[in-house]
Amino acid sequence: MSTPLSPLPRDHAPADRQRWAVKIEYDGTGLVGWQKQENGLSVQALLESAAARLAGGRPVPSITAGRTDARVHATGQVAHLDFPADLPLNTRAVRDGLSYHLKSHPVVVLDAASVDPSWNARFSAIRRRYRYRLLNRPSRPGIEANRVWHVRFPLDVQAMRVAAELLLGHHDFSTFRASACQARSPMRTLDRLDIKRDGELIVFDVEARSFLHHQVRNLVGTLQLVGCGRWQPEQIRVALEAKDRRAGGPTAPSEGLYLVGVDYEPDPFR
Amino acid sequence: MSTPLSPLPRDHAPADRQRWAVKIEYDGTGLVGWQKQENGLSVQALLESAAARLAGGRPVPSITAGRTDARVHATGQVAHLDFPADLPLNTRAVRDGLSYHLKSHPVVVLDAASVDPSWNARFSAIRRRYRYRLLNRPSRPGIEANRVWHVRFPLDVQAMRVAAELLLGHHDFSTFRASACQARSPMRTLDRLDIKRDGELIVFDVEARSFLHHQVRNLVGTLQLVGCGRWQPEQIRVALEAKDRRAGGPTAPSEGLYLVGVDYEPDPFR
C-alpha cells in the first residue's frame, strides 16, 4: 500500500510556480473593488494583467488578504501572485515592473517579497487593520471628495468611544454582518476600535484577525448613531446581543474605508 | 473751495455693494489656478459664476488673498465678493448657496462673513500660510496622486532644516522669485519654514506676510537639493546672497502646494 500524502495547506503553490507576496496601495474611487467582475475595473484584474505582462503573457493567478468592496481604498493591501517558476524575478523587478504596467491606474505596488509555496496572503494573515475616515463639518469635502464619509452635524467622539469599548473582544457579530456574508461563523474577535478626532476628521482604527463582510462599515455606521445622539452608548450592547442585522445601524459608505495593513508572522516584507 | 476727500483704501467697495469675505477649499488638479483665463476653469470664474447665480444673474466681482497657480490646492483660501447691496444675504446663505452652485466642481465655500467696505481680502491680509507636501518613497503615489510631489530617493530632513534656518527673516528673495513676478520689491520677511517628516510624507510649513511669485515652490525645490545631498546646507546662503534666480534650485511642482490659511486682524470669520 502507498503511504497517503500529508495534506497540503490550502492553496499551496504548484511546483511549476514561484509565489510572490505584494503590498499594494490603491484609490478605490473608480474601481469595482478587489474581485474580478464583468462590469468594471477591479484591482485583481489590473494586478493580474500587469503580472501577465511580466510573465510574457502567461496567466498569473492571485489571492488577496482582503476582498475590498467597490470604492474602498487601500494603503497596505497584501496579495500573493503565482508566477511561472522559470521567470527570473527579484524584489525590485516585481515591485517596479508591476507598478510600471499599472501606471495608467491609481494602483501601485509598494513592496514585493518571495515567499514559500505554503505561504498564503489570505490564510497566513494574523491581523487585518482598517481605517475609516469621516469628515465632520458643515461643508462637503473639496480636496477629500471620494476619500471620506461626510457627516454635517457634529458628532460626540467621547460617546462613540464609550460605545466602541462594548464591541471589543470575542462576540457573535451577526448584527454587523452583511446578508451576503459567506463566512461560516459570525464569531469574531475585535482587538481594536480606537476613535480619534484630527481637526475636522474623525478617524476610526479597527483591527481583528478577520472581519465579516461589511463589518467595519456597519460598526462605523452604528457608532455614528451614538455620535449624533440618536442612540445612547449602551444601546450598542443591546444591538450586539440581538445578533440580528436589523438591530444595527446603517452601513457607512465605502469611500471612507481604507485597508491600511495586513500582518503576518513573520512579516514577509522585512 | 471744497474740502478734498480723504483717499479711500485701495479697492473700497462701492456704495451700492455689500462686501462678503469667503473661505474656500479646492482641489486644484483640474483647474488653471485662481485667476480667470481663456483656456480653462479657474477658481475665480467658478466662484463669481456661483455668486452671480445668488445675485439673480448680476455680476459679482471678487478679489483674492492669493492668486494660486494651476494645480495648486487650497484648504483656507480667502477672497471677498461684492454683492449688490439690495440682496438679502446672511452667513449661511452665502456659504451654502455658493457651495450649492459649485457642487459639480471640487471647490467648496467653508465659511462666509459680512465685512466692512474697506476690508480687502488681499490688502488686509497680515499673513499667508502655505504647506508643501512631498511623498518620499520609491513607489509613485496611488491615493495621493496629484496631491504631493513624489521624490524617490531618501531626503535628509535634518539637513534641509539647517538650510531652512538660513532663509528665515527679512531678505532680498530674488533667487527664489519667478521671472514673471510682478511685485515691486524682492524684499520679503519669511516668518516660518518648518520641515517635518510624517511617515512617508515630508511636510513644509511656510509663513510670511506675503510671498513673491513661485517663492514657496522655489524654496522647496532648492531645499530638496540639500535633502538629497547635492548641496551642503550652507550653499543656501550663497544662493540667497546671489540675488539671482539662476543661483537657486528648480521650482517644485505645483501639485504639492496648498494655501492653508490667510490671517487677518481681527479675523472676519470669528
Automatic annotation (TrEMBL), chains A, B:
This is tRNA pseudouridine synthase A. Residues 163-265 form the Pseudouridine synthase I TruA alpha/beta domain. Homodimer. Formation of pseudouridine at positions 38, 39 and 40 in the anticodon stem and loop of transfer RNAs. GO terms for molecular function: tRNA pseudouridine(38-40) synthase activity. The active site is at 69 (nucleophile). The keyword rRNA processing does not apply. Signal peptide: none annotated. InterPro entries: PsdUridine_synth_cat_dom_sf, PsdUridine_synth_TruA, PsdUridine_synth_TruA_a/b_dom, PsdUridine_synth_TruA_C, TruA/RsuA/RluB/E/F_N. Keywords: Isomerase, tRNA processing. Its EC number is 5.4.99.12. It catalyses: uridine(38/39/40) in tRNA = pseudouridine(38/39/40) in tRNA. Belongs to the tRNA pseudouridine synthase TruA family. The keyword tRNA processing applies. It is an enzyme of class 5 (isomerase). Substrate binds at residue 130. SUPFAM superfamilies: Pseudouridine synthase (SSF55120). It comes from Acetobacter conturbans.
